Amino acid sequence: MLPFVFWRLLASIPVMALVALLVFSMLYLTPGDPAAVLGGETATDADILNIRESLGLNGGYFERLARWSMALLQGDLGNSIFTKTPVLDTIMARLEPTASLMALTCIIAVVVAVPLGVVAAWKRGTVLDKFVVGGAVLGTSVPVFVMGYVLAYVFSVKLGWFPVQGYSPLASGIDRWFMSLLLPAIVLSLAFIASIARITRATMLETLSQDYIRTARAKGMPEDVVLFVHGLRNSAVPVLTVIGQGVVMLIGGAVVTETVFSIPGVGRLTADAIFQRDYPIIQGIVLMFSFAYVLVNLVIDVFYAAMDPQMRR
Fold first, then answer.
1. CA-to-CA distance for 278 and 285, rounded, in angstroms?
2. Statement: residue 160 has pLDDT above 70
3. Residue ranges of the domains in the chain?
């Protein structure tokens, strides 16, 4: 097991290097000049040139890539163009709301979706199965921002069950923290629940038709043991795959959800940085989320190997 983990870690290094190169290249080729935005409409060409010089935006592609790569290896993501604060400090200051939202979303999605998928496969063709399938289609079809505004209007404005907007830090109390994030997490988890439940149902349908499931039932094993121990364990690899892929969906959805509910997280910071063309902030955020996705895939691969010894080879 340890050699497998070591080689997977080693293989992640060139992937992360390629991600860093793509992030820099993507923003380098993006149209728009932050110096022109900072200078305003009255800035002359000389003013814009001076601003570009002060921001380190002068030079060709390879020169700027070399400067950026050397700084990145030293843990320096640069400074924000507008606030002049270090990018890493700016992101870390916004990380708690986003990390809390994504963690709560993942917990809700997995706890709700996996049992729903298992039960839908068990009760195939019944009203419950049709309800799960229909809910999965609806969850993947409705945009996050539409569902966010609808649920906020119903449960926050009309019923008053949740705060309309804002975020309460964990230091202010776990109850206030939980209530400020519960509705946004539910909104963000709906599409995730739909994806997990649909894949769980499909894989469980195939698993429940296997001979060893019929043998377990013939031996008189309780149905919950057959479903969740023998069935779900052998269906776990595709389910883990869709959970890992769902992290990307959560990252994109967090930008919209934090904007709808005015949560001061990394998603809201991303939207603000895009509007301001604050390239260092955008680079830092995209790089951080890309590395997080690579790390999640690494963790999923380790779980694969733990459940299926054949995958270690």
1. 11
2. yes
3. 2-92, 95-264
Confidence (pLDDT) at 237:
73
Q: Report the residue count for the chain.
A: 313
Instruction: Give the residue carrying structure tokens 């001979």.
Output: 211
2 CB burial (10 A radius; 0-12, 13-18, 19+): exposed
Domain 95-264, what fold? Answer: MetI-like fold (1.10.3720)
pLDDT of residue 141: 75
Are 185 and 99 spatial neighbours (Cβ–Cβ below 8 Å)?
no
Share of the chain above pLDDT 70, in %: 84
Q: Are 148 and 260 in contact (CB under 8 A)?
A: yes
Confirm whether pTM is higher than 0.85: no
The SS3 call for residue 79 is strand
Q: Which residues contact 151 (CB under 8 A, 6 or more apart)?
A: 183, 186, 187
Give the residue from 77, 99, 264 showing the smallest Cα distance to 166.
264
Place of tokens 């992101």: 91
Token pair 């069935």: residue: 231
Q: Measuring CA to CA, which residue among 135, 146, 13, 22 is closest to residue 73? A: 13
Strands (E), the chain: none
d(CA 221, CA 215): 9
- Show contacts of 288-293: CB within 8 Å, 24+ apart: 288/91, 289/251, 290/16, 290/19, 290/23, 291/16, 291/19, 292/247, 292/251, 293/247, 293/248, 293/251
Residue type, 148: G
pLDDT in tens, 100-155: 888 888 888 888 888 888 888 877 778 877 888 887 777 777 777 777 778 777 88
